[in-house]
Amino acid sequence: MKSALLKISFVLLILCFMGAGCDKDKIDFNTHSIIGQWKWEYTLGGFVGTTYPEEGKTVILEFTKDSMLIERENGKITFETQFKVDGDTLKYDRGIDLEYKIKISNDTLALTFIEFGLNPFYKRIN
After folding, report:
1. What one-character DSSP code corresponds to residue 35?
2. pLDDT by residue (tens digit) across 9-44?
3. Considering the domain boundaries, does residue 36 fall inside one?
4. CB-based contact 62:35 (threshold 8 Å)
5. CATH code, domain with 115
6. For residue 119, what are the domain limits?
7. Which of 14, 76, 83, 119 could link 44 by a cystine bridge, Cβ 3.0 to 4.6 Å?
């Protein structure tokens, strides 16, 4: 009896170690970490390669707690819509449905435009 119990315990212990080493399929992303204001620094990709804001032009994205995305150019609202974060994907409508993979590291927001390979980068300002 003790021998069978030891064998079962050993097998369960091995299974626990095997399960602990597996990667998660679902990516844990803190949706609230995108909330705030972000200043556009540059975009990688497309025909040009790297695009920077024109001199004197400031583009700010604001993600609000009530799921609003507000884009401002030099302080003037140029675009406003509802957004949704699903896993590590930002989704919103701008005449067409847009999806970006989100990566936040320190005060940098990197968005990867899934369909066209454009990658805008933003710095947190608030």
Report:
1. -
2. 443 434 444 444 444 444 455 667 899 999 999 999
3. yes
4. no
5. 2.40.128.20
6. 31-124
7. 119
Condensed to tens digits (0 to 9), the pLDDT of residues 41-93 reads: 999 987 778 898 999 999 999 999 999 999 999 999 999 999 999 999 999 99
How do strand 76-86 and strand 59-63 relate by DSSP bridges? unpaired
Residue 80 and residue 83: Cα distance in Å, rounded? Answer: 9
Which residue, chain included where needed, has tokens 């200043």? Answer: 39
Domain-located, residue 23: no
**In whole angstroms, what separates CA 111 from the centre of its chain?**
6
Structure tokens at 110: 């990197």
Q: Is 116 helix (H, G, I), strand (E, B) or coil?
A: coil
Number of domains in the chain: 1
14 belongs to a structural domain: no
